[in-house]
Structures
1.
Amino acid sequence: MTTPQLTKNQSLVFDVLEKAEGPLSAYTILDKLRDHGFRAPLQVYRALEKLLEYGVVHRLESINSFVACAHPGENCHSHGIVAFAICESCGLVMEFHDHEVDHRLMAWVRGQKFKPEKTTIEIRGLCETCAA
Amino acid sequence: MTTPQLTKNQSLVFDVLEKAEGPLSAYTILDKLRDHGFRAPLQVYRALEKLLEYGVVHRLESINSFVACAHPGENCHSHGIVAFAICESCGLVMEFHDHEVDHRLMAWVRGQKFKPEKTTIEIRGLCETCAA
DNA sequence: ATTGCACACGTTATAGCATAACGCAATTGA
DNA sequence: TCAATTGCGTTATGCTATAACGTGTGCAAT
């Protein structure tokens, strides 16, 4: 799947996320886009919905925030399950993939006849710098 | 670590979760306990905080809900990372552990010198019954 | 016995996250 | 042309979570 041309609002939201140092909440994005005419949360959420669908943005469930995908150019849906390490001190997010983890999880759910749709793996802790 | 004697509020909240068919939100728990004198969200959240600490309740980050641990009697902190499969149709929650997954994830973070504190693995999808 | 501390609890208020419902405008394809 | 789709803006609302303050109780140290 290729990413379609982004609309104006989608581009604005995506740019904010790309330039950000770490994950942002929808309301933080909203604040950053007030000067560009954004007024209501829905403008952000609707753009995010599409960006998530296109695979160029990820949602971090455990902190109710969003990040641009770490793989510019491609989309992430083809990489299998995406995992994140999130620094609770500085907000640094590291994104990674591990096929063996995917296999184990998918093997388990297959054993239960469970049909997976969306998987979340998030490791909260301290990054090297903050742990020192 | 052994679970200390629960207080009245903690017991009430835990009982509600144990008897529930699936995960419950804090506000749903609140509603179920109105007859027992609960009036405010904090009464629920404070009890949940302790129950999470004791390892007898889990928080499902992706759906902002809580479930009683599937291992009555013992606490879950000793089992390594806990993973969940959550049916988006009927709310069924299956809890499981996979040491190989733990090892892979912990090996990865160790390579990054990241210090993990709390890990979330949640697979949303459809259970066997609902997928049929 | 009294003082000081830790802890659970109750209440009010507020902050933070997310969506429902309405209507309008532009685009597309039959 | 007409209907369907999609994006957009606005208002209102609902759901999730915590801050801040005060009360009461049990218990240990002096």
Note: The domain at 8-131 of chain B is CATH 1.10.10.10 (Arc Repressor Mutant, subunit A).
2.
Amino acid sequence: MAYGLALAVLADPTRRQVLERLREGAQAVNAIAAGLPVSRPAVSQHLKVLKQAGLVEERSEGARRIYSVRRDGLLEVRAWLDSFWDDALDAFKLEAERSYKVKKGKR
Amino acid sequence: MAYGLALAVLADPTRRQVLERLREGAQAVNAIAAGLPVSRPAVSQHLKVLKQAGLVEERSEGARRIYSVRRDGLLEVRAWLDSFWDDALDAFKLEAERSYKVKKGKR
DNA sequence: CAAGTCCGTAAGCCATGACTTACCGTAAGC
DNA sequence: GCTTACGGTAAGTCATGGCTTACGGACTTG
């Protein structure tokens, strides 16, 4: 239902780079900012927006804030895209979620 | 590969409304603009951008330009989202495409 | 061919948002 | 307790882009 906000947030290339960094695993803000072409405060701002959109989640670890991808947020966008295949929607969602759980279980 | 452009394009609410109108079937520009809260030229501009991003396609029918959704463009975005499930990606894509064809064939 | 429809493009306005530097609170280490 | 890392927030700048009105070209119809 919040796919609109998520899409607006995913529109920014820097923000997508942040997400891609997090794809490899949860990281602190400094670690994320290292290697990105923008300043650390800029990354902080992006993380705030990503969090509001439900695309990342934050956990405190001492003085550090560890961010990680929140896949449910991405699923909402996926669901909207799937809706363009109309009645195939339900099949998509079910299969997708089932596949994911199966994969996870295997590890 | 062009998912970046597609995401930037999908970020705009009006543009998504245009797409949603087209979900019900191919339409001419006037028909699309009717019911939308913006002017017809604005719709034209959005259609241009949507076309550049590969999200719609255009066909001429006399003086009218008929636009329709180009699902392959949406699939690129889907594929990128799926990549956040890493190796589950291939399974998703295969299942999704297969499901779609099955559904289509049933009609 | 003249009048009317369809729609793309140009020009200009204005709001939004991405970025920077500067600053401040909080936690950790010597 | 001081100093140093960590990172969120404020303020200000600047570019981007979505919208409008005005215009012009292409096709259709009488």
Note: The first strand of chain A starts at residue 27 and ends at 28.
